[in-house]
Design a protein that fits this description.
Elements (H helix, E strand, L loop, with lengths): L6 H5 L3 H6 L9 H4 L10 E7 L4 H11 L3 E7 L7 H10 L6 E5 L3 H6 L20 H5 L2 E2 L2 E2 L2 E13 H7 L7 H14 L6 E2 L5 H11 L4 E4 L2 E4 L4 H15 L3 E2 L7 H9 L4 E5 L2 H5 L9 E5 L11 E9 L6 H11 L3 H11 L26 H10 L12 H17 L4 H18 L4 E3 L3
Parallel strand pairs: 1-2, 1-3, 7-10, 9-14
Antiparallel strand pairs: 3-13, 4-5, 6-11, 6-12, 6-13, 8-9
Helix pairs in contact: 4-15, 10-11, 10-17, 17-18
């Protein structure tokens, strides 16, 4: 069962952390110290900064039925491509929007910076049951609620049916079967890889460890325990060390790059394991229609059936003058069926955060995916097979960058992924301590 991050894990830090989160000077104490702001007595205009395309179409649905509230959307670059820097800078200057798009993994970092409103003050927790429990777990932390889940990415296995049929294979249900199938394909179709493995993608390694039952960041009292080297995580690292060493995966390029598209279109890649949002990207594979299906994520003997890759929230920013109206809007936008359908159709959002509605467009069969109703058959069950104990910490992006730097050494100097996890664990603890956060390595 998910346990919220204790507030003291955020507050047990020095001035250095309070001043340098996100690379910006932090000035927002209002979100923590101010009392609840009452609803406005007249018309309200809410500003919303997001990198979702055509989000104004969704906001206009709300504007039509709430004449006293006008939501105006401004597009910003995505996350670390400039969006967060824009948000941090505006908030530090006392401005910024009422609502901002913040990835789930970045919520703790924004909380530590004092940039988000605890919307439990405005009734958000009363609507908890409207949302998927795993998605909700990423916004309910430090005794508060710091956003509403916008979309998620339950992980599944996308595979080329013609490649599997050619070697008489079925979709693997376990990671051991995945490796066995990869070798079968390798023996019978030289030059065909099971998948790619991007050694520059620390997020994907986190996703794989999360499924296995790992918990990299564990709050205990006033400190963070950094644990990348438990049995589950080392099992994952050793598995991918072998997959790379045996040539079962291609490490020459990353997912969804031009070479990846060409290889997937040519049938020299057999599968791709990733979040549900990958379906839209796979639909761009040349001549791929009718050659793909979706299966559950292969699993370990222990751990969980799936994991999450990606996911965003809509969060009320610290300088908002209308947090009640902003909270009401983002709850509606992510739980109302009409709004969810519009988010999917117009904005291309990932998996629905709602507890009981995946979106009408996702309920039926897909022509591209061989007539399979994969969203109801596969993705919906995967969303219920999550590691609810996984938590993201402050300094999330820096931690992921440290892990990615360690992973790259697999190709540059032969350092195993197993060894790189231990090195990264030590470096993450040091990074936390340099920022004034209390942290230590886990005892194994």
């Amino acid at each position: 069962m998910h346990t919220s991050i204790p507030r003291r894990a955020f507050l047990g830090l020095g001035a250095a952390a309070a001043m340098t989160v996100g690379g910006c000077t932090t000035t927002n104490n209002r979100a923590e110290t101010a009392g609840a702001i009452p609803p406005a007595s007249g018309p309200v205009t809410l500003t919303y900064w997001s990198w979702l395309k055509d989000l104004q179409i969704v906001a206009d649905l709300y504007n039509q039925v709430n004449p006293n509230v006008r939501v105006e959307v401004t597009w910003i670059p995505s996350s670390t491509s400039g969006g967060y820097q824009k948000l941090y800078s505006a908030l530090a200057a006392g401005g910024g929007p009422d609502i901002g798009q913040v990835e789930m993994r970045m919520i703790p970092e924004f909380v530590l910076a004092g940039d988000l409103v605890d919307i439990s003050r405005y009734g958000a927790r009363e609507h908890k049951d409207l949302f998927d429990p795993a998605a909700w777990s990423y916004v309910d932390l430090a005794d508060g609620v710091y956003g509403i889940p916008q979309d998620t990415g339950p992980v599944a296995l996308f595979y080329r049916t013609d490649v599997f049929d050619a070697v008489g294979a079925s979709p693997p249900t376990t990671w051991q079967e995945w490796a066995d199938t990869a070798r079968l394909i390798q023996e019978n179709r030289p030059g065909t890889y099971m998948d790619v493995f991007n050694v520059a993608d620390g997020n994907m390694l986190a996703t794989l460890c999360q499924q296995a039952g790992g918990n990299w960041f564990v709050p205990e009292g006033e400190e963070w325990v950094i644990n990348l080297t438990d049995e589950a995580c080392l099992q994952v690292a050793a598995f991918w060390d072998t997959a790379i060493d045996d040539g079962l995966v291609n490490t020459a390029f990353g997912s969804f790059s031009s070479p990846w598209m060409s290889a997937m279109g040519a049938g020299t890649l057999a599968t791709h394991t990733n979040g549900s949002w990958a379906d839209a990207l796979i639909e761009a594979v040349p001549s791929g229609a009718g050659k793909f299906k979706v299966a559950p994520m292969p699993r370990w003997d222990t751990g969980y059936g799936s994991s999450y890759s990606g996911g965003s929230t809509a969060a009320v920013m610290a300088n908002s003058r209308h947090p009640q109206e902003a909270t009401d809007f983002i709850i509606w936008m992510h739980s109302d069926p009409q709004a969810l359908d519009s988010l999917i159709t117009n904005c291309g959002t990932g998996w629905s955060p709602a507890a009981d509605y995946i979106g009408k467009v996702r309920e039926g069969p897909s022509e591209f995916f061989s007539g399979q109703s994969y969203n109801t058959e596969v993705i919906a069950p995967m969303a219920r097979e999550q590691n609810l104990d996984w938590l993201w910490p402050p300094l999330c992006q820096q931690s992921i960058n440290i892990v990615a730097d360690g992973m790259r050494r697999k190709l540059t100097d032969g350092t195993s992924l197993v060894d790189s996890l231990a090195i990264s664990q030590t470096e993450i603890v040091r990074a936390f301590q340099r920022r004034g956060l209390r942290a230590r390595e886990a005892e194994q």
